[in-house]
């Protein structure tokens, strides 16, 4: 049994000791109920075929989805396992709140070993699973599919599957499907997580109303920044819907020479009795407690990024003019995006040559870096270490460093090719290049971008060449981990042409992620609503820009743009030299408000009220004591009063709406709602509910006479 904070995950060996089976997943218990016996006979099938197995392999399973396909290379496929110690698992380790179960199996041929690892911790509600496959035979074995695990979730069919889909500029769009039978699968073969699907689903019983916050719901995710696959299979037998996931099984073939092994990335699962919203809360708690190295402002600063203001026209004197205003309005880091390095005057050249452009920076970056620091901000830089322009010194020196399939012209996307991160010398070059930059200049914020998918993978002549999608992701993670280990003061923002690489593996190595290149405020609100279903607010980089929006250009106020960006890690990307004095003053006030609320916005639960673009859509943040509600309403010309009914308040606590005389108990606020005063902007507001009995000994406890919340006129 694996206990989490509020649940228990229970597995047992099948009576024939040939597999591990799923028994139970639900409220915490110390006495699991005995699993239903497996049928002795199944018409036109075998008992193992219908069992809710933790991990299934080709060769012993024919009717349902399998997680492992083995090819012995001599006409034999599959494997039949037997547990190595039938009298008990090889390892059941409880240390502190963590329980780790490891169960090794050997193939009947004796040549393969499979170890299943399951881990849970009582500080959160997420169960982690992974597997190791070892080749102990004398021959080479290939694994056309080697998934991380399966989650047999007991919801019956039809299953209601919620997921996030989209494309560049409209990532993280919520969608759902009811699955009566068969398989629904999502994934990426782009060498990165991709814009099209997020590697996570929430599964519940169709018609169970899980979206409304009630009913059992199960979340499954894959923590992997490369090509992947996630499949949900509605059962022909019994109540278990099978969710399997792992590295992509179409373009990836793992090859194990004698003595080699392969460890899968982890798959994560969580159960909630509070529907899809409960699954979201469980993910966020895990991402804050386990994946984040810190929740504080040191790695979640207010960023000014000059990309939208200058694109490739990066000139030090112009950047310093922008830095003057960025400092004035309260930015904590000034980031120079694409365009600062040798030969980079458009996206056609320079990528790979990571030295300041000598024509633009004859004295190197020092004058700009010093100027930014003198203005009281940290200095940040953009890099794209995985790619190269053919028109670059790096490519001219190492044309063999890019992915290339013999006999096929490599595909350029945005005029660039992808460096082969499956080669040791290439990954070592990336590490050394970044080490050099971060040692030479006092850069303390790095934005790592990736502006194209990986294609033309494979390495002719390399027996492991078919493993390039795994190698590429592993190389990326290796360099990201080096940054964290050797430069712990450097905040890392992960980006891939917007939200092309966002997943729980990235959240473990980056401090913030860039969810989309779409910064038009109403479109962004939709993207953020979807993003927050799977990922937390403290990683959600969001900038105020001057962009109108790619799809929805309905005008909004200046304040609305800020309240959208405050929903995550606030940044600013506007051309600040076009802002008048009134806008700068209002921006300074809004940045100050955000900085004050940041611990609450980043440290607690988030719940959404309604849907974006319906009047009164709101995001509510609660850290257990206080509540912040961001409300959006572009249809305010109707002048109808809008009330929000907070859900994260405590019924018996009396709250004061900050900056007003309004006091209300949590129970009344929940029932009757609070009328939105629209104090911050005509179409957006920030409501702060403080407990009305502040502790006089706590200097951080806000006084009821806290300054008025009304925004200054622009
Ligand atoms: C794509 C990113 O998403 C943008 O923010 C910007 O950094 C550009 N790349 C620069 O090329």
Present the secondary structure layout.
Blueprint: E1 2-3, E2 7-13, E3 20-27, H1 47-50, E4 68-71, E5 81-83, E6 91-95, E7 98-107, E8 112-121, E9 126-135, E10 141-154, E11 159-165, E12 173-179, E13 182-188, E14 197-205, E15 217-222, E16 228-234, E17 240-247, E18 254-256, E19 261-263, E20 267-272, H2 275-291, E21 303-305, H3 307-310, H4 316-329, E22 333-336, H5 366-374, E23 378-383, E24 387-388, H6 393-397, E25 417-418, H7 424-440, E26 443-448, H8 468-486, E27 491-494, H9 504-507, E28 512-513, H10 521-534, E29 541-544, H11 558-565, E30 569-572, H12 581-603, E31 605-609, E32 617-622, E33 627-632, E34 643-644, E35 654-657, E36 663-665, H13 666-672, E37 674-675, E38 684-691
Parallel strand pairs: 21-22, 21-30, 22-23, 23-26, 26-27, 27-28, 29-30
Antiparallel strand pairs: 1-2, 2-3, 4-10, 5-7, 6-7, 7-8, 8-9, 9-19, 9-20, 10-17, 10-18, 11-12, 11-14, 13-16, 14-15, 15-20, 16-17, 24-25, 31-32, 32-33, 33-38, 34-37, 35-36, 35-38
Helix pairs in contact: 4-5, 7-8, 10-11, 11-12
(2R,3S,4R,5S)-2-(hydroxymethyl)piperidine-3,4,5-triol (DGJ) is lined by residues 307, 337-338, 382, 449, 451, 495, 497-498, 514, 517.
């Amino acid at each position: 049994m694996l206990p989490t904070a509020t649940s228990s995950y229970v597995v047992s060996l099948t009576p024939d000791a040939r597999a591990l089976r799923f028994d139970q997943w639900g409220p915490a218990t110390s006495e699991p109920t005995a699993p239903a016996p497996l049928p002795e006979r199944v018409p036109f099938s075998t008992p193992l075929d219908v069992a809710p197995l933790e991990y299934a392999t080709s060769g012993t399973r024919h009717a349902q989805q399998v997680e492992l396909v083995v090819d012995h290379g001599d006409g034999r496929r599959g494997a039949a396992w037997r547990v190595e110690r039938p009298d008990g698992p090889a390892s059941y380790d409880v240390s502190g709140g963590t329980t780790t179960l490891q169960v090794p199996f050997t193939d009947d041929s004796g040549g393969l070993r499979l170890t299943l690892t399951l881990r849970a911790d009582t500080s959160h509600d997420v169960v982690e699973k992974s597997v190791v496959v070892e080749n102990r035979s004398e021959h080479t074995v290939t694994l056309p599919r080697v998934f991380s695990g399966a989650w047999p979730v007991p919801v019956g069919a039809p299953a209601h599957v919620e997921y996030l889909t989209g494309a560049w500029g409209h990532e993280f769009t919520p969608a759902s499907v009811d699955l009566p039978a068969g398989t629904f699968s999502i994934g990426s073969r782009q060498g990165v997580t991709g814009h099209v699907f997020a590697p996570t689903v929430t599964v519940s019983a169709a018609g169970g109303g899980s979206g409304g916050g009630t009913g059992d719901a199960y979340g499954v995710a894959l923590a992997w920044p490369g090509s992947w696959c996630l499949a949900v299979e509605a059962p022909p037998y019994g109540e278990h819907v099978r969710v399997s996931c792992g590295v992509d099984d179409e373009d990836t073939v793992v090859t194990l020479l004698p003595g080699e092994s392969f460890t899968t990335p982890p798959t994560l699962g969580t159960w909630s009795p509070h529907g899809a919203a409960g699954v979201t809360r469980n993910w966020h708690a895990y991402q804050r407690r386990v994946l984040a190295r810190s929740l504080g402002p040191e790695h979640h600063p207010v960023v000014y990024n000059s990309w939208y203001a200058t694109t490739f026209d990066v000139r030090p004197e112009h950047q310093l003019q922008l830095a003057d205003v960025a400092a004035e309005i309260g930015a904590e880091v000034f980031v120079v995006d694409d365009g600062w390095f040798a030969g980079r005057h458009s996206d056609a050249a320079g990528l790979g040559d990571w030295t300041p452009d000598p024509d633009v920076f004859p004295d190197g970056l020092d004058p700009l870096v010093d100027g930014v620091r003198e203005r009281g901000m940290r200095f940040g830089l953009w890099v794209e270490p995985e790619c190269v322009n053919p028109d670059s010194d790096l490519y001219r020196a190492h044309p063999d460093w890019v992915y290339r399939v013999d006999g096929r012209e490599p595909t350029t996307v945005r005029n660039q090719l992808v460096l082969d991160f499956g080669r040791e010398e290439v990954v070592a070059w990336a590490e050394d290049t970044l080490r050099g930059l971060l040692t030479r200049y006092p850069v303390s914020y790095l934005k790592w971008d990736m502006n194209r998918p990986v294609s033309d993978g494979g390495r002719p002549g390399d027996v492991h060449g078919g493993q390039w999608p795994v190698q590429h992701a592993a190389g990326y993670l290796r360099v990201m981990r080096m940054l964290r280990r050797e430069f712990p003061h450097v905040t890392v923002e992960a980006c891939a042409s917007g939200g092309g690489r966002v997943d729980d593996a990235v959240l473990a190595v980056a401090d913030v992620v860039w969810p989309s290149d779409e910064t038009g405020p109403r479109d962004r609100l939709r993207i953020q609503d979807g993003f927050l279903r799977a990922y937390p607010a403290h990683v959600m980089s969001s900038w105020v820009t001057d962009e109108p929006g790619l799809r929805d250009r309905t005008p909004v106020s200046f304040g609305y743009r800020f309240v959208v960006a405050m929903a995550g890690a606030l940044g600013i990307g506007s051309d600040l030299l076009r802002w008048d004095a009134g806008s700068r003053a209002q921006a300074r006030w809004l940045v100050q408000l955000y900085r004050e609320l940041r611990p609450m916005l980043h440290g607690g639960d988030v719940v959404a009220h309604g849907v974006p673009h319906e009047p009164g859509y709101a995001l509510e943040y609660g850290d257990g004591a206080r509540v912040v509600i961001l409300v959006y309403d572009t249809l305010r010309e109707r002048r109808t009063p809008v009330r929000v009914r907070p859900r994260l308040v405590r019924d018996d606590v009396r709250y004061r709406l900050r900056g007003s005389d309004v006091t209300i108990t949590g129970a009344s606020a929940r029932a009757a709602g609070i009328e939105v005063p629209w104090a911050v902007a005509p179409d957006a507001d920030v409501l702060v509910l403080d407990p009305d009995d502040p502790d006089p000994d706590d200097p951080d406890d806000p006084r009821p006479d806290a300054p008025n919340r009304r925004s200054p006129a622009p």
